[in-house]
Specification:
UDP-n-acetylglucosamine1-carboxyvinyl-transferase, Chain, alpha/beta, 4-stranded mixed beta sheet, globular, about 425 residues
Length: about 425
């Protein structure tokens, strides 16, 4: 793909149907739990992206037998019954925070030495709170550079059990990682959430994936989880479409005044990000559910004030919709997204201002006051969500370009092709 992508405006409301690829969040959780299960699991609807490929490669390096059929969106995985077989491994996770955190806890169940690392941005992303929790459970986990970020060195003789207080104010993935590993410990494990827990719907997602493989936890009090030794059971598991990716197509209907149906999603989806559609309803859209999926119909948009802590991966999508609303839009309680692929608050503020918008930056969010849009080339900061969300602006305004469109390979390599098909535009040849 070329160094930039020129977005072509649509002539009117977009109407159509799409099924996004499988959920990255569910895919990587299902891969971890299937790897820890006894027997061979088959996963259907698996997302094929950079984030999932680094996970699959790492599981192979840890001695598991993995068969990936990307054309069929299928993975067959022979589980290790809670004991990763490799005595050592070097794992390279690019910039997949989900993968490095989940695999760190999985490595703690092994017997040996494991090193987990990634690209330059990964080496800036926090991992210290997870390392602290692993040490409380008797595992040696050290950030090699002493900065509480990768590379992470895990030296383990298996997970004995015990109690750990888990700080999850920066990412719920620390807790999810430990929850998935906990049933495979030799003794009972008690996990206690210390302080604020961000993105709580992702914890419910983790627990439901575990239950699909026969894993059970007790919750004797809010923020407390108890696991007794047990073995996950291999299963045939279907992964629903990615709700974070669906947010772009719901937003497409909103900004063009059109109607888009996202197949395979319901209001009861495992992914909390499906609730982004309800934010668009607050802005003036309509949402209906049918056997086909969820349909969002656009309408005159008004600004909203919304706490997006639980659906923070869609904050950039809302930021791209806000310039087309009447009145300001405030996005709050998402301070933790400063530690994602980029500082997402600072990046969004910078690019919206370059697009001519009035933006007030806050420690935990931002307020966007619409103004006439100034065409520009939007920087994406090697962040797939910057590219996918800001492309929506160019569907209404000519002259919008997206820098480094290839960064979408992280979670949605076919995004721009799917966007063009839905908008009825001929596909562009690679540049």
């Amino acid at each position: 793909m070329s160094d930039f992508y020129t977005v072509r405006p649509v002539p009117g409301p977009v109407r159509g149907t799409i099924r996004p690829p499988g959920s990255k969040s569910i895919t990587n959780r299902a891969l971890i739990v299937a790897a820890l299960a006894q027997g061979t699991s088959t996963l259907e609807g698996v997302l094929d992206s950079q984030d999932t490929r680094v996970m699959l490669e790492s599981l192979s390096r840890l001695g598991l037998t993995v068969t990936h059929e990307p054309g069929e969106c299928r993975v067959t995985l022979a589980g290790c019954a809670g004991r990763p077989p490799a005595p050592s491994a070097e794992l390279w996770l690019e910039n997949s925070g989900t993968s490095i955190r989940f695999l760190a806890a999985l490595c703690a169940l092994g017997q040996g030495k494991f090193r987990l690392d990634g690209n330059a941005r990964m080496r800036e992303r926090p991992l210290g709170d997870l390392a602290d929790a692993l040490r409380q459970l008797g595992v040696r986990a050290d950030c090699e550079l002493g900065n509480r970020c990768p590379p992470l060195l895990v030296t383990s003789d298996g997970l004995a059990g015990g109690t750990a207080r888990v700080a999850s104010g920066l990412s719920s993935q620390y807790l999810s990682a430990l929850l998935m590993a906990a049933p495979c410990a030799r003794g009972p494990v008690r996990l206690e959430v210390a302080g604020e827990l961000v993105s709580e719907p992702y914890i419910e997602m983790t627990l439901q994936v575990m239950e699909a493989f026969g894993g059970h936890l007790e919750r004797p009090a809010p923020g407390v989880y108890l696991a007794t030794p047990q073995t996950y059971r291999a299963t045939h598991y279907s992964i629903e479409p990615d709700a974070s990716a669906a947010s772009y197509f719901f937003a497409l209907a909103a900004v063009t005044g059109g109607e888009v149906t996202v197949q395979g999603l319901t209001r009861q989806a495992l992914q909390g990000d499906v609730r982004f559609a309800e934010v668009l309803v607050q802005m003036g859209c309509q949402l209906t559910e049918s056997a086909s999926g969820l349909t969002l119909t656009g309408g005159p948009l008004r600004g909203v004030d919304v706490d997006m802590n639980d659906i923070s991966d869609t904050a950039q999508t809302l930021a791209a919709v806000a310039p087309f609303a009447r009145g300001p839009t405030r996005i709050r309680n998402v301070g933790h997204i400063r530690h994602k692929e980029t500082d997402r608050i600072a990046a969004v503020v910078t690019e919206l201002r370059r697009l001519g918008q009035q933006v007030e930056e806050e420690p935990d969010g931002l307020t966007i006051t619409p103004a006439p849009i100034t065409p520009c080339r939007v920087a994406t900061y090697d962040d797939h969500r910057m590219a996918m969300s800001f492309a929506l602006v160019g569907l209404r305004v000519a002259g919008i370009e997206i820098a480094d469109p290839g960064c979408t390979r992280k979670t949605y390599p076919g995004y721009f092709a799917d966007l063009e098909r839905l908008c009825g535009q001929p596909a562009k040849s690679p540049g």
